[in-house]
Write a structure and sequence with these properties.
33 helices, six-stranded parallel β-sheet, single chain, 23 strands, ten-stranded mixed β-sheet, alpha/beta
Length: 802
């Protein structure tokens, strides 16, 4: 298979394949047909290494990781795969010879909509690093037919449309119907005891579906290792349809994989989400067991050959499901089965927010998953017994898995895992000292930190070739394989020629973003203004509200005082709000209404523009993050587990303007306070205010003229003719006492922003700060994170290819 050995060979193979597949002359085929054939050719080429990887793992008995995650935000893969395979230049030149542009081919690929935000993007970065470090690590997820949603802004509001990411198919996937698995729900269980006193279960489910896998190759960078992302689709099980209930059955099957995170504000939505979680867990565990038994005679050595990582609480049903399979299908007694499970499974916690730690109604779990629920009851019973015997019975109420008629999934995860990790130093400390303090006192050895990382291949090399080229010229290309070599930039940060070259590269990236904004939104932005960016999920704790309040304040100040003008600045926002999250949607509406006012005010718009880029995605992030001068990381201290956007901005030369939260803390440790702008309350301050119950939003409103003016502008027709337009925001701050301390941090934020504007005007100082950020960003590569997981949790070693 040497279709790519030269440009000429590629052109010949490509033209022939296109015309053979579609039965017409190459010139008469459609662009999308050419894209599909190119994708097929690249996937087939990757298939050579894919096969070699599987063979090497099997022959060498290498331990493998299975990363269970409800989300994998892979983004587009054509560029990534061509670059990782070392084929990019041949394909680019070959397409040019055919009169085609590689950029147009890249634009035809949809962003795979298998997720919502940071959790899914982290999982994607991890897969890239695992393969690039020659570690056997596979993903396990659902093949959602539609992504989260496509966001459109109409009348300033978010409108959700279907995200049809599969409309041109998915060229990377390989359908594997021979590996289909039955997944069973509901129904009744009969238990009986045999002559030897052993329990046996017989199960009559009332809903059975086939989980059918689609596999995608995950290509490592310039290496043979090609791992697998397995996505499960739900298909009908012909023998399981109850008479007269065909259409109801078909609807239930379709709903299982329709889209990521169904609206769980209703009982039906909750039920569907629980079914989704069990669906991909059950199928994934089945696959792991089958694969293991094809190589080894028994499951006794499963923990030595398999590591399972649970990415947050969504896949925690792995624990009781693996118990079920070991006991019911392979006749293990409880204790040996439990030992296998605990030594195999590890859990990553991604949140300290109580509402994000999943809990399921016990009745729902019992009804949908009767056998799994019985096992959870027994895990809970034995755990309580263990507590009593350790003299810790007083802890029952805080740590029980079953309490208040709910199954507490984070508790189940901690009890059934050998490792529990947070994703930034401060986050892990909060888990140990506060959120999970009782568990940390019971199992101190289980808790550890693994600060998140990003793949520098996608977020620097491929998305910012201009900066990559400059870095290679300055420090060589060693950082491509070893990103911590970016520190070699440090001796050069004071070089005025390098500083000027960096600023020219940054301006080029800003121009690319400005052109995109002009083309898609018809807004003109000044590329010599400060590009100030906040792009992430819209949530009250992430405080997009603080950002827009600052903009409102500047506008009102400039309108009042003609002598006051700011250094030109463009504020970029990009964010989706969950469809049922009314407050978040109102914040989006406010941002867009403020943008409309500011951008159309001839007096102010030359100093300030506000741009909301709809439908935030990996592809949008790839244009936005490397154009940023300022990276807004302004969550309430103690609420953001880590963040990874902060790392992407930093790696591309942007200043972190942030609170001491999540990975911001470690970014400042790396670059120093002189090269970041930190403001606001610390975790301890907020804890104190909460403990003393001493925070009062009205006191700030009454004592601070700036705050009062901004709050009043929500209701006095400044931004809308309807004084009740922003009632939800007003109520959240003033009647519910500003849960996320927006007003408490407002003056500190204004001051921090004024400092940023001052620093930016010293061009040499600014360039130096940005170069320091780039030089210190190598630590935040996901390669480092994955090495830590592999050495300290999973026990993985590189695949020994022959």
């Amino acid at each position: 298979m040497s279709n790519f050995s030269s440009k000429e060979e590629f052109v010949e193979s490509f033209k022939l394949a296109v015309s053979e597949q579609y039965g017409r002359n190459f010139e008469d085929t459609y662009p999308v047909e050419r894209y599909v054939v190119l994708g097929d050719m690249v996937r087939d080429y990757a298939g050579i290494h894919w096969k070699e990887t599987k063979n090497a793992v099997k022959e060498s008995h290498t331990k493998q990781l299975y990363y269970f995650s409800m989300e994998f935000l892979m983004g587009r893969l054509l560029t990534n795969n061509l670059m990782n395979l070392g084929l990019y230049d041949i394909v680019k030149e070959g397409l040019e010879e055919c009169g085609l542009s590689i950029n147009e081919m890249e634009e035809m690929e949809s962003d795979a909509g298998l997720g919502n935000g940071g959790l899914g993007r982290l999982a994607a970065c991890f897969l890239d690093s695992l393969a690039s470090l020659d570690l056997a690590g596979n993903g396990n997820c659902i093949r959602y037919r539609y992504g989260l949603f496509k966001q459109k802004i109409e009348n300033y509001r978010q409108v959700e449309l279907p995200d049809c990411w599969l409309k041109n198919g998915n060229v990377w996937e390989v359908w594997k119907p021979q590996h289909a698995v039955q997944v069973k729900f509901g129904g009744k269980i009969d238990a009986y005891m045999d002559y030897n006193g052993k329990f046996h279960m017989s199960y009559a489910p009332d809903f059975v579906v086939r989980a059918v896998p689609y596999d995608e190759p995950i290509v490592g960078y310039h290496t043979k290792t090609t791992n697998t992302l397995r996505l499960w689709d739900a298909q009908v099980d012909e023998d399981s349809v109850q008479s007269g209930k065909l259409s109801e059955y078909l609807n239930d099957v379709m709903a299982l994989t329709a889209n990521v995170y169904p609206d769980d504000s209703t009982q039906e939505g909750k039920k569907l989400r629980l079914k989704q979680e069990y669906f991909f867990v059950c199928a994934g565990i089945n696959q792991i067991i089958e694969s293991h038994l094809r190589v080894y005679p028994s499951l006794d050595n499963l923990p030595d050959k398999v590591a399972i990582q649970l990415n947050d609480t969504h896949p925690v049903l792995v624990i009781p499901e693996l118990m079920r399979v070991l006991m019911d299908d392979y006749n293990y007694d409880w204790d040996p089965a439990w030992s296998i499970v605990c030594r195999t499974v590890a859990y990553t916690n991604h949140t300290v927010m109580a509402e994000a730690l999943e809990k399921w109604p016990q009745d729902m779990m019992r009804q949908l998953l009767p056998r799994v629920y019985m096992i959870i009851e027994e895990i809970d019973r034995r755990f309580r017994y263990e507590l009593d015997h350790k003299g810790k019975g007083y802890m029952h109420n805080q740590v029980a898995i079953l309490k208040d008629n709910q199954v507490h999934m984070a508790h189940l995860a901690i009890v059934g895992s050998h490792s529990v990790n947070g994703v930034a130093k401060i986050h892990t400390q909060i888990l140990i000292n506060d959120v999970m303090a009782q568990f940390a006192s019971l199992y101190p050895e289980r808790f550890n930190n693994k600060t998140n990382g990003i793949t520098h291949r996608r977020w620097l090399m491929y998305s910012n070739p201009q900066l990559t080229q400059l870095l290679i010229e300055m420090i060589g290309d060693g950082f491509i394989k070893d990103p911590e070599q970016l520190t070699r930039l440090m001796p050069h940060v004071n070089d005025p020629i390098l500083q000027e070259r960096f600023m020219a590269v940054k301006r080029e990236r800003k121009q690319i973003l400005a052109d995109y904004v002009k083309k898609t939104l018809d807004i003109d932005v000044n590329v010599d203004s400060i590009f100030d960016c906040q792009a992430k999920r819209l949530h009250a704790y992430k405080r997009q509200l603080l950002n827009i309040f600052h903009i409102m304040h500047l506008y009102l100040h400039m309108k009042k005082d003609r002598g006051f003008r700011i250094y030109p600045r463009t504020f970029f926002f990009s964010a989706k709000a969950a469809p049922s999250y009314a407050l978040a949607k109102e914040i989006i509406k406010l941002i867009n209404m403020v943008a409309e006012k500011v951008n159309n005010d001839p007096e102010i718009s030359q100093y300030m523009k506000v741009v909301f880029i709809p439908n935030y995605s990996v592809s949008v992030a790839e244009i936005l993050m490397n154009a940023a001068d300022v990276s807004e990381q302004i969550s309430t201290a103690g609420k953001e587990a880590s963040g990874t956007g902060n790392m992407k901005y930093m790696m591309n030369g942007a200043l972190t303007l942030g609170t001491l939260d999540g990975a911001n803390v470690e970014i400042v440790e790396q670059v120093g306070y002189d090269n970041a702008q930190i403001f606001g309350l610390h975790v301890e301050d907020i804890d104190e205010l909460r403990k003393e119950n001493s925070y009062n939003a009205w006191n700030l409103y009454n004592s601070d003229a700036n705050i009062r003016e901004v709050i009043e502008s929500l209701k006095n027709n400044t931004w809308s003719n309807d004084p009740n337009e922003f009632q939800l925001i007003y109520n959240d701050l003033m009647l519910r006492n500003d849960e996320f301390f927006v007003l408490a941090d407002f003056e500190a934020y204004l001051y921090a922003q004024s400092q940023v504007a001052q620093m930016y005007q010293d061009r040499s100082r600014w360039a130096r700060m940005m170069l320091v950020n780039i030089a210190k960003s190598g630590y935040f590569s996901s390669d480092r994170t994955i090495r830590e997981y592999a050495n300290e949790i999973w026990g993985l070693t590189p695949i020994p290819f022959k």
